[in-house]
C-alpha cells in the first residue's frame, strides 16, 4: 500500500488552513484543516487521520476535496433553511410600529419586549414566534434589549 501525503501547500493555502483551524466555527472544518496541516507537516494520511479522529474514508474524501477545490472545498455548504415569514413590507411596517408605544397598538405594556412583540405579531399578522425569535427580529431592525430604568416622579422642590 502506497503512503500518501497532501501536495505541498502554497503560502496562501497554509495561512488559510491555519486560520480555519484556529478560528473555524464548525468542528468538522477545523478537523479537516488540522488533518491537512498534519499531512503537510510530514505525517502520512493514515497517521494524521488517526490523530484527529477521522476515518480513512473521510481522510481520502477530504484530501480529494482539497486537491480539487482548495481550501473552499473544506467548508460546509450553507444550508438554506425555511423561508422567512417576514416580507420586506412587514418589516418596514413593524419598524414604524416599534417607534410607537405598545399602548398605542392596543397592548397592555409600556415598553416593547420580545413577549410583547410576539403578542402584537400574533394579533396583527397571525405569526406565532418564540420570544427568542422575536428578539432576533428586534435586533435585525436595529433595536437592542435595554432594561427600563425606574424614574422617580418629579416631586415638590420645596419638600426636597
Describe the 3D structure:
- This protein is mainly alpha-helical.
- The chain folds into two domains: 64 residues; 53 residues, no CATH class.
- 51% of the residues lie in helices and 0% in strands.
- It is built from seven helices and no strands.
- The protein is elongated and about 90 Å long.
- The model has no long low-confidence stretch (mean pLDDT 86).
What is the typical, i.e. mean, pLDDT? 86
Our Rg estimate from Cα atoms comes to 27 Å
Count the beta strands: 0
Identify the overall geometry.
Answer: elongated
Uncertain residue segments = none
Structural class: mainly alpha
Write the layout of secondary structure elements.
Layout: H1 11-23, H2 27-40, H3 45-52, H4 56-69, H5 88-98, H6 114-124, H7 131-140
Helix pairs in contact: 1-2, 2-3, 3-4, 6-7
Task: Please supply descriptive tags for the structure shown above.
about 0% strand, about 160 residues, single chain, mainly alpha
Describe this structure in a few short sentences.
This protein has 160 residues and is mainly α. Helices cover 51% and strands 0% of the residues.
